[in-house]
Amino acid sequence: MRSGITRVRLRPGYGETSPKRFSRKRAVIGVVAGLAAWIAVVAVAGLIMRSLWSAYSRVADAMTFTLPMMLARLSIGALATLAAGWITSAIAPRPPLVRLMPGVILLLVFIPQHIALWHTFPLWYHLAFLVSLVPLTYLGGASHSAVRLTA
To answer: Which of 63, 49, 42, 22 is nearest to 106 (CA)?
Structure first.
């Protein structure tokens, strides 16, 4: 005998937290955290490089970098960009395109900066930095997803 209580069955993801459901709030928080991670990695690595590499510290303000210095700067940028994608994906794993957003935002911010500094660096430096932002952000996010799947 039934008691007259009707059970309402909710659609999956409706009214409950589901990891498969897209959350705009999580996406925004993930992108902001990814950008903050990028800034933090670049700032800390820049401070370390200035304190440990006296030749770099002497030329940093004038931006008259040698080839090893430019490669070090690009490496820091690559590490920071991977971290941005990883953090974004850790907070907002769905949809996968969200992990591209920090890279797109960084690209939009840095295009004018690199245009202003066009004469300061060789063409390959600008291209290496700008072209890598979106793919490395995605790769950082994909590496988080791969770690999550194997765990």
So the answer is: 42
Two structure tokens written together for 51: 């304190």
Long-range CB pairs of 118-124 (<8 Å, 24+ gap) are: 120/63, 121/63, 121/65, 121/70, 122/70
CA 60 to chain centroid, in Å, comes to: 24
3-state secondary structure of 73: helix
Sites in the chain below the pLDDT cut of 70: 1-22, 145-151
How far apart CA 87 and CA 92 sit, in angstroms, is: 8
Question: For the chain, what is the radius of gyration of the CA atoms?
Answer: 21
C-alpha to C-alpha distance for 52 and 62, rounded to whole angstroms: 18
In the chain, what are the domain boundaries? 24-150
Give tens-digit pLDDT for 121-149: 999 999 999 999 999 999 999 988 666 55
Alpha carbon distances (Å) from 133 to 46, 107, 130: 18, 6, 6
